[in-house]
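[step 3/7] inverse_fold.run input=structure_tokens len=115
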């Protein structure tokens, strides 16, 4: 898991991204297409066309990091907008990385009584 400090925003780059791209190319996309500073400390999440692979770009103040995750089954839930970025919380990102629908997570079990 990525240790996200408080105050860091998480951005989903809508649409799909060429997953052959590396951190410099993705940072350039953040700067030119999303009009944001890739070195400001926010996380940027990119998804490939097939939907089972994401890359996360993060600058922690010391250097740029690039994380990747591929789901064995299923696809990552993605916003329907075709361009721009959508801000989500760190908890929503954690749901997304587990393959859970981060837009409306449901409890699978809830106790009926306290005793």
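[step 3/7] decode complete -> sequence:
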């Amino acid at each position: 898991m990525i240790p996200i400090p408080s105050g860091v925003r998480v951005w989903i780059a809508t649409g799909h991204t060429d997953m052959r791209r590396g951190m410099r190319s993705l940072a350039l996309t953040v700067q030119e297409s999303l009009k944001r500073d890739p070195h400001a400390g926010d996380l940027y999440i990119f998804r490939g066309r097939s939907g089972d692979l994401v890359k996360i770009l993060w600058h922690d103040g010391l250097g740029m990091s690039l994380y990747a995750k591929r789901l064995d089954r299923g696809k990552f839930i993605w916003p329907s907008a075709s361009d721009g970025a959508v801000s989500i919380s760190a908890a929503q990102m954690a749901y997304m990385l587990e393959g859970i629908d981060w837009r409306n997570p449901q409890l699978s079990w809830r106790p009926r009584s306290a005793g």
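[step 4/7] annotate
Strands lie at 10-13, 43-47, 53-59, 64-70, 85-88.
Residues 8-96 form a domain with the SHC Adaptor Protein fold (CATH 3.30.505).
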